[in-house]
Each structure stands twice: as C-alpha cells, then as structure tokens.
Write a structure and sequence with these properties.
By secondary structure, this protein is of the alpha/beta class. About 55% of the residues lie in helices and about 10% in strands. The chain has a five-stranded parallel β-sheet with strand order 2-1-3-4-5, sandwiched between helices. The longest helix has 23 residues, at about 75-95. The termini are far apart. The structure holds CO-5-methoxybenzimidazolylcobamide. CO-5-methoxybenzimidazolylcobamide (B1M) binds near residues 63, 113, 190, 191 and 209.
C-alpha cells in the first residue's frame, strides 16, 4: 500500500495514466506500475507501446535526475525494480508472436557492469521476433562468453554495457575471439547508452544497436543475408 492508494489509476485517461506511471516509476512503486501496465493492455495498447512510453520514458527521467545528483542508487534501484515488474508482465506478450525460429543469440552485460534492464529488453524483443535467446546475465567475463558460444553455437553474440568504464571490455572479448580464430563465425552486435557506431566499428563489432527495436531489425537483416550466402561469407556492416 502506498501514499497514492486514493488515486484510482482507472479514472485517468491514457495520457494522464502514462504521466502518472512515469511518476510512479520514478517513485519506485512496483504495484502501481504493474496495475498501470495491466490497465493499458486492457485498453488495447500494444505491449511494445506500453514498454516504451510509460516504462522506458519513465526510466529516461530517472536517468536524468540520477546524473544530476537528485536521485541516488537506492532510489534508482527501486525504480529499476518497478520497471522489472512491468517488464515481467510484458515479456510473454512480446514473445507471443508464433514466429518461426529466426536464429539464436547469446547475450550478456560485460564484466564490471550490473545494468541489465536494457539487455533484458533486447532479449524480450528478440524472443518476440522469433530468436532463441540465451541470456548470460550481468558481469560476464570473456570466458563466460566463449563457453556460451561453444555450448550454444549461436548465430549472434550480443554484448551490453552502460558504463564508459566497462564498454572497452567488449574489445577484450572480440580480440580474444580473433585470437581463437572464431570471430567470423558469429555476428557481433553491441549496445548500451554510452556506445555509438564509431565505437562499435573501432572495436571490431559488426553493428551498434541504438535500441531493442534496432537490435531486432539488425539481427534479422544479418540472418537473411546469412541465409543467402555461403557459410562463413558474411559482410561486415549493416546500416
Ligand atoms: Co547506473 N549509471 N550506475 N544504475 N544507471 C547509468 C548508466 C548512468 C548513465 C547514470 C547517469 O549518471 N546519468 C551512469 C553511467 C555514467 C557513465 O558511465 N558515463 C551510471 C552510473 C555512474 C552507475 C554507478 C557507477 C553508480 C554508483 O554506484 N555510484 C553504478 C554502477 C554499477 C555497476 O554496473 N558496476 C550504477 C548502478 C545502477 C543501479 C544498480 C542503481 C541501476 C541498475 C539496475 C539494473 O539495471 N538492474 C542503475 C540504473 C537503472 C541506471 C540508469 C538510470 C538507467 C539505465 C536503464 O536501465 N535504462 C542509467 C541512466 C541512463 O542510462 N540514462 C544509469 C533503460 C534501458 C531500457 O535503456 O540500458 O540504455 P538502456 O538500453 C537500451 C539501449 O541502450 C539498447 O537497447 C536498450 C533498449 O532499448 N541496448 C542494447 C542496451 N544493451 C544492448 C545490447 C544490445 C543491443 C542494444 O546487444 C545486441
């Protein structure tokens, strides 16, 4: 139960509800977020829109105030927890497309980094697009990635980093793949707020993915090219 118990979320129109949910996410109110997600779904909203407008939109505001020293780690953890509550409701709906298997992806957040909301979102969207996704979690070192590649033989390796201090670790993974002569066996996609295309190119990744929707489109693009090419003959970039 919270201070906002007297506010009936159902009495709000869509625009007011989205705004209220962004406020509730900011305040880390998981129950309210879950209720809001269910209301929007009952009103016929597409799961992807519920994900992006109140949830990702709310987390963007949290990020700004975290950066500016208005919010601190404990508050941001509560906001992340509320966001995960909403994402848990949306996950099966996003995965429910009945699409045939498109390919397989191993994904993880790199060593030293515990941010996983964006990675989880990418996993959800990829599953929804018909990919098998093996999620290695957070704080993945090079051995963990390589073992997963060996075990699962995916088409795609995805890496996520949210810190400027952890993003260089992606190069460690790619360089190790090169040393072992397995780099070209996989499409390597990278993402996370501090990255950009220049960085992805500099570390030898195939593509930078700005967000989860771009990750899905990029992965699909590579898979269709892969099917149209002889084995091992992949090109290096997708725009
Ligand atoms: Co952190 N944090 N945090 N944090 N945190 C940031 C990243 C920061 C930008 C906040 C800020 O200052 N404005 C800042 C980094 C600054 C920098 O490096 N230059 C920061 C910091 C400093 C820190 C700590 C160091 C704080 C401290 O302890 N003093 C600490 C580090 C801990 C560690 O990792 N070792 C820390 C801790 C935390 C919490 C634990 C409190 C929490 C994480 C909870 C969790 O993830 N379970 C947290 C959060 C929530 C954030 C912010 C506010 C939100 C991140 C998020 O979830 N965004 C963040 C501010 C921000 O990013 N604006 C911040 C929503 C998510 C949907 O977006 O993750 O960008 P995003 O993912 C997108 C795309 O980037 C892309 O698609 C996703 C979906 O569209 N994408 C991929 C991401 N990964 C991909 C992989 C792909 C493809 C696309 O592979 C194919």
């Amino acid at each position: 139960m919270s201070d906002q118990d007297d506010l009936d979320l159902r009495s709000l129109d869509d625009e007011e509800l989205v705004k209220q949910m962004q406020d509730d996410l900011y305040d880390g109110l998981k129950d309210e977020i879950e209720e809001g997600v269910n209301i929007l779904l009952e009103r016929g909203w597409a799961p992807y829109d519920v994900l992006t407008q109140p949830l990702v939109g709310g987390m963007t505001i949290v990020g700004i105030d975290f950066r500016d020293g208005i919010l601190f780690v404990p508050e941001v953890l509560l906001a992340a927890n509320a966001m995960k509550g909403g994402m848990a409701i949306l996950r099966p709906l996003l995965a429910e497309t009945g699409a045939p298997p498109m390919g397989k992806m191993v994904i993880g957040t790199v060593k030293g980094d515990i941010h996983d909301i964006g990675k989880n979102l990418v996993s959800m969207m990829m599953e929804g697009a018909g990919f098998d996704v093996i999620d290695l979690g957070i704080n993945c070192d090079v051995d963990k990635y390589l073992e997963a590649l060996d075990e699962h033989k995916p088409d795609i390796l995805g890496m996520s980093a949210l810190l400027t201090t952890t993003m260089p670790y992606m190069k460690v993974v790619i360089d190790t793949m090169k040393e072992k002569n397995i780099r070209d066996d996989y499409v390597v996609l990278v993402g996370g707020a501090p990255l950009n295309e220049t960085f992805a190119e500099a570390i030898g990744a195939d593509s930078y993915c700005r967000d989860a929707a771009v990750a899905v489109e990029t992965a699909k693009d590579y898979m269709s090219r892969r099917h149209n090419q002889r084995p091992g003959g992949m090109s290096s970039t997708v725009n």
